[in-house]
Write a structure and sequence with these properties.
Strand order of the largest sheet: 3-4-5
Number of strands: 5
Largest sheet: 3 strands, antiparallel
Strand content: 15-25%
Radius of gyration: 27 Å
CATH topology of the domain at 7-105: Double Stranded RNA Binding Domain
Helix content: 25-40%
Shape: elongated
């Protein structure tokens, strides 16, 4: 895990202080025997987007993102329970938060409208003509329109 001291690095210029991230250990769900029943290995991560020190641009993009992990109140909730140890689940939850923020950092290239090429138009018309003839030959003889 690449947590440096008290900061979670997102990129070379952006990092989040670990004080802004709340981690809570809870018991894991599902099968696993006695370990599941007595050890709190699962981790719930809570990150308040509005109260964070992230740049405003990232905050806006995160709040506008349609993701089930982001509550309507602007809090990111991530649950990690795959691993058998709390420390591993903590690292996985922090990595997921990091990936979520990295997703909104990427600027998507805008789509340029293009018109169909002459060849594609001709191929389309040829396909329509072929289909039309196929259907015409299926009709009963003498049923010309």
């Amino acid at each position: 895990m690449d947590v440096i001291g008290t900061m979670l690095p997102i990129s070379s210029r952006v990092s989040i202080p670990l004080q802004e991230i709340q981690l809570q250990a809870v018991r894991s769900q599902g099968a696993g025997g006695q370990n599941v029943n007595k050890v709190s290995t699962a981790v719930h991560l809570f990150f308040d987007i509005r109260a964070s020190s992230l740049p405003e641009v990232y905050k806006e993009r995160l709040l506008n993102k349609k993701d089930r992990r982001i509550s309507p109140g602007g809090i990111v909730i991530i649950k990690s329970q795959e691993a058998r140890t709390q420390e591993t689940n903590r690292e996985k939850a922090l990595n997921r938060l990091k990936e979520l923020i990295k997703e909104v950092m990427q600027v998507r290239k805008s789509r340029r409208a293009t018109s169909p090429t002459r060849g594609s138009k001709e191929r389309r018309l040829q396909a329509k003509d072929t289909r039309s003839k196929t259907k015409k030959f299926r009709r009963r003889p003498g049923m010309d329109d």
